[in-house]
Amino acid sequence: MIVSDALTNRLREFALALLDPERPVPVGLVGPDGLPSQRRFNVYRNNVVAGLTSTLRDAYPAVARIVGDEFFAAMARIYVAVRPPRSPIMLDYGATFPEFIGTFEPAGSVPYLADVARIERAWVEAYHSPDVEPLDPEVFTHIAAEDLPNVRVILHPSCRLVRSTFPAVSIWQMNVSEGPVGEISLRQGGENAFIIRSGADVEVRPLRSSAVRFVESIATGETIIEAMKDAMSEDTAFDLSSCLSALMTTRAFITYGLSPGGRPLFEDV
Questions:
Q1: DSSP character for 166?
Q2: CA distances (Å), 51 to each of 11, 66, 72, 80, 128, in order?
Q3: What is the pLDDT of residues 166-190, one digit of tens each?
Q4: Is the same domain home to 97 and 182?
């Protein structure tokens, strides 16, 4: 199907007018009486914006609760105008909302808001990630001690990490439900989030910076021993055994094998 330049321009003008209340009714758009109707178009425009705002609120419930409905609606309205949907799949919409919040000046008084939004986005991505059977932790008992340093593990596709200098995990947990909101001191330090889906449930756990570094290194294909060295560069007290145990408990791995040069444990590494 060939689309003419004229039609392309009309569609572009229509899309721009939908998200910009300062623009007039697009040329050629008329009501049942054959005349342009600003009022009719405004109703349609408001419905589109309200729908996109609702999509954002559903994806970022903790953010909405922290700032309140009025502030969230105003912030979302500006986001919708500058970051309109690029796909008809609404699941993808709002992926850049945390980045936007970080640059949205009125939200500067809530410095942890962008990190809470990153946790919420990671939660959504983890929830909709592919279904892959996690590795049974019992298989690690069959790895010879001399092979362990050269083992590479593959993370579950739902695994996500969010670093924060604020207690973002605690703030998110307190605001994601309708329960009472308590007090959290920002002086208590940062909390990094480890997000993973087990079955149908998404779990969010705080993780030390050294453990985050370990998981990041594993994700890039490094061996366990290489990842351990990276983690120890952040914290010499990093405990490999405890970290691996915690990751196995969350069923974070889907397969494993030896690095090149070692005895292969499976073919795809």
A1: S
A2: 20, 21, 14, 10, 21
A3: 999 999 999 998 766 777 877 888 9
A4: no
